[in-house]
Structures are given as C-alpha cells and as structure tokens.
Amino acid sequence: MPDAPKPCSGHTVSTSPAAFAGTPAKTSSAPLLTSPESRELVQTMRHQADAIMTGGNTLRRDNPALTVRSPHLPPKKQPWRMIVTRGDASNLPPDSQVFTDAHSHRTLVQPHGDLPAALQTLASHGCNTVLVEAGGKLTGALLDAGLADEVAIFYAPMLTGGPDAGFSQTLKNIPLTSQTFQRIGNDILLRATILKA
Fold first, then answer.
1. pLDDT tens for each residue of 16-58
2. What angle do CA 176, 18, 95 make, to 5 degrees?
3. R_g over Cα of the chain
4. Hey, is 108 helix, strand or coil?
5. Ramachandran area for residue 162 (φ above 0: left; ψ -120 to 50: alpha; else beta)
6. Cβ-based neighbours of 93, under 8 Å, separated by 6 or more
7. What CATH number does domain 7-194 carry, 3.40.50.300, 3.40.50.2300, 3.50.50.60, 3.40.430.10?
C-alpha cells in the first residue's frame, strides 16, 4: 500500500462469479450462478481466510452471512467480517445477519469507503489473509488502488445481459501472472496473482 505499512501481510484475494461475457454477476439477480462445487470451494476459501470483506451495497441487497458453513470442513473460529460502506455505519440495516447472528462480535464496519483503513483495522485484529466477496464497485476500488494481491474468478456456462460494463468505470489494465485455470463442476476458475509495479 503506498505510504503505509502493508496490511494483512499484503494478501488480499478478490473473488467474483462471472458469466462467459466476463461481467461480474449481481448475486441478487442470480444467487445460484455458479455450481455447487464452486460454492463449496468458496467455503474452503472462507475457511482459509482470516477475514471476509464486502461492501455496504452487497449487505443491503443480499444480506449475506459471510460465514463458514460447510459440514466438510474442520471447525474453527469464524473469520472476521469487514463491511466497507461509502456512508456512515448508521446507514447500514441493523437487522442484517452480520449484526444479529451468533458471530456479530466479529463484524467490523469501515465508513466513508476508506479501504486502507479497513485493511489496517483487520491487520490490528491479527488478519493475514482477506477474502473479498463484493460487487463491482468495491472490487474495482480495491483493484484500482492496488490493494488486491490475487483474483479468483468463477466463470459459469451462461451469458448475462444488462448495462453493467464490468468492475468499475475507472479500472486500469491490471496485468496478471501465475494464472491457473481449473474446471470446478460446470464452471471454470481463473486464479491469478496481480503483478505489482
């Protein structure tokens, strides 16, 4: 991170379900876009992460739990949950799962969209790996700011329409390295490291 200590050991993984058109899918309109095998792999990725980050819009739209729920994984403490909102914390729905479930004490909120501060807060809680499960705006902001270290994109065998052009309108070309492609159920997983300047 420019002019700041590297947060969370610098390992931030951004995940996104996508259709073959290459556009990140809105989970509210297509909650089962990816295969059960892909969703189980995401559970494994959550299990390996110290924290899961999402945005305020995703929280309002989808009310995600952001927990490890797979019965196939060994028990461990639930990851921290970081909600990044462009407004104030008071604008988030108080009845969201992350604020009302048994793990609500492990939910953090970063107002005003301050991503470096969010990552520093997670670092102060002992986080080393952050898994980002968010919509296009937060994902694009992380990529634009150079705060993501790895991407994992699940391509589902379908096309999506609509006006959404991709992650963010200001997104630069970001080179990737160490790319791997893996068949997961009916999906294709692209996993790659972001090449930093």
1. 665 443 344 444 444 567 899 999 999 999 999 999 999 999 9
2. 110
3. 16
4. strand
5. left
6. 59, 60, 63, 99
7. 3.40.430.10
